[in-house]
Design brief:
- Helix 1 (2-11) runs antiparallel to helix 2, helix 7 packs antiparallel against helix 8 and helix 10 packs across helix 18 (473-501).
- This protein has helices spanning 2-11, 23-35, 40-58, 63-66, 70-73, 77-88, 90-106, 111-128, 148-151, 154-171, 173-178, 186-206, 227-230, 236-247, 271-278, 405-420, 466-470, 473-501, and strands at 217-222, 255-257, 286-297, 300-311, 316-321, 358-361, 364-371, 390-395, 424-428, 433-436, 442-446, 452-457.
- By secondary structure, the protein is α/β, with parallel strands linked by helices.
- The chain folds into two domains: 2-207; 217-467, 4-Layer Sandwich (Nitrilase/N-carbamoyl-D-aminoacid amidohydrolase).
- The strands form two sheets. A six-stranded mixed β-sheet has the order 5-4-3-2-1-12, with helices on one face. The chain has a six-stranded mixed β-sheet with strand order 6-7-8-9-10-11, with helices on one face.
């Protein structure tokens, strides 16, 4: 159990902002060795311990959000992180139990055991991204985010497919060290071949020439307003003034981009504020800004977390409502049963929007909007019927201070860019704001705690990727192909031995 918890904690160092690839085989091969010869129940317990170490360390930054209002929520920080980690650890437990059950029944060992483990782990990650509201944070494949060529295959097999490849290669040291079959060198050669093939495919994609950029000048405004001060009535005027001053700095601008809930109020109800903001919007330009919204219905007032568009006259053009809400942050699940307050300011729970949506404006490439943690969901960021030309990710990571949380969030956004073949423009309240091209490279960024703007041209998009067209079906093809290749190799070996014996 101690070894499993330690290996799980070590796996976090494979992910951004650390990205130490050496720890991939150390962490996951250790887990595979620990699972050898265990009964299924004990294997599940060991897998759960690995997950506890992985999520306990990897999600420790969530505690920071509870100290934003320490008087009300500070005492809940440690229990909340511990409870969430223990719950999410059920998925590594499922993967470990499933692997052990199949391996023991079928007497699977060697490279086939690595293939089985990678399959079970990837299936559990996929479930984690879809069960209940889903939480596909810190997928194993994100170990490759900071390596340009190695992350490119996500354009074909997605982030779950990268996880499969990372787990397959990462566990190969276990049979290489433990097997009695000669020659042992064949196993590391296999791992090296997979790495070289992945890298070569990535390099080939990086050589593709994308279409010319659309010639759109962007300005991302990062106000750097502390979360503790953001909603205080006495700070409202200072917040608005800060955003207007940053927005009106000299330079060519077609689109102004403000982060999630940048305006501390209901902008569509405040004509005075709209007039002031309209003066900061360039001629024939527009502003995309995160704002809360409320709508009166027969059932009462509904609240939405939105991004709204305004032109230089202050007229509201259209908007998008966040459809994946953060449990306990934007709404309380089972509110009738749980006596828990939600952590964000407001008069009531937010209501979910209808889903991904592509927005169209005159003279502007089609844009999809993802608010905050919506960007972490592979294959669920854009409208499949109306493909956009770029993605605007408005977020407020001020909840998490200078922890590793914002870096992990940025890593998810970079993977969505590769998967969809689309540039992503990210506006955050206190960082990390960034412009990400369609290969997942950072064109520009503003770190946490910085106040300022990013002025840059919108990068060009790639044609629709294989993953953008078929989603996670490509993962299934990858897994089946690997199993078919392994079965064919085993059949050839068996046939060769039979011929030699005769």
């Amino acid at each position: 159990m101690i070894a499993a918890i330690s290996a799980g904690g070590l796996s976090v160092l494979t992910l951004p902002p650390f990205s130490i690839l050496l720890f991939v085989p150390v962490a996951y091969a250790t887990l595979l060795v620990l699972l050898r010869h265990l009964p299924v129940a004990k294997a599940a317990l060991v897998g759960w311990a690995f997950g506890l170490g992985q999520f306990g360390f990897g999600l420790s930054w969530i505690a920071e959000s509870f100290y934003v209002d320490a008087e009300r929520f500070g005492a809940m920080a440690i229990p909340a992180v511990a409870g969430l980690s223990a719950s999410l650890a059920a998925f590594p437990a499922i993967a470990s139990a499933l692997f052990t059950a199949i391996a023991r029944r079928r007497a699977i060992e060697g490279v086939a055991a690595c293939l089985l483990f990678a399959t079970c782990w990837t299936a559990a990650e996929w479930l984690r991204g879809h069960v209940l509201t889903g939480f596909p944070w810190n997928l194993a494949g994100y170990a490759l985010v900071d390596y340009a060529a190695l992350r490119q295959p996500a354009a074909w097999v997605g982030s779950y497919g990268l996880s499969f490849l990372v787990l397959l290669v990462g566990t190969l040291p276990a049979p290489a060290l433990l097997t009695e079959v000669r020659p042992r060198w064949s196993i590391p050669v296999l791992g090296l071949w997979i790495v070289v093939a992945t890298w070569s495919a990535g390099v080939a994609r990086l050589q593709l020439e994308p279409p010319g950029p659309p010639g759109l000048d962007l300005r991302i405004v990062q106000g750097n307003v502390p979360q503790q001060e953001k909603w205080a009535p006495e700070n409202r005027e200072a917040t608005i003034t800060r955003y207007l001053d940053l927005s009106t700095r000299p330079g060519s601008v077609d689109i102004l981009l403000w982060p999630e809930t940048a305006f501390p109020g209901f902008l569509d109800e405040d004509s005075g504020a709209r007039s002031r903001i309209a003066a900061a919007i360039p001629d024939e330009g527009l502003l995309l800004t995160g704002v809360p919204d409320r709508v009166s219905t027969n059932e009462g007032i509904r609240f939405f977390n939105t991004v709204q568009a305004y032109d230089q006259t202050g007229r509201s053009l259209t908007g998008y409502a966040k459809h994946r809400l953060v449990p306990f942050g934007e709404y309380v699940p089972f509110r009738g049963w749980l006596p828990i307050e939600r952590m964000t300011e407001g008069l009531g729970d937010f209501t979910a929007g209808t889903g991904p949506r592509t927005l169209a404006f005159p003279g502007v490439p089609l844009v999809a909007v993802a608010i905050c943690y919506e960007i972490i969901f592979p294959g669920h960021v854009v409208d499949g019927l109306f493909r956009p030309d770029w993605i605007f990710n408005a977020t407020n990571d001020a909840w998490f201070g200078t922890s590793i949380g914002p870096e992990q969030h940025l890593a998810s956004a970079r993977m969505r860019a590769v998967e969809e073949g689309l540039p992503i423009v990210r506006a955050a309240n206190t960082g990390i704001s960034a412009i990400i091209d369609a290969n997942g490279d950072l064109v520009a960024r503003l770190g946490t705690g910085e106040t300022g703007v990013i002025n840059a041209a919108l990068p060009s998009a790639h044609p629709p990727t294989l993953y953008a067209r078929f989603g996670d079906w490509t993962l299934l093809v990858l897994v089946v192909s690997c199993w078919a290749t392994a079965a064919a190799g085993r059949l050839r070996k068996t046939t060769s031995l039979r011929k030699r014996d005769t």
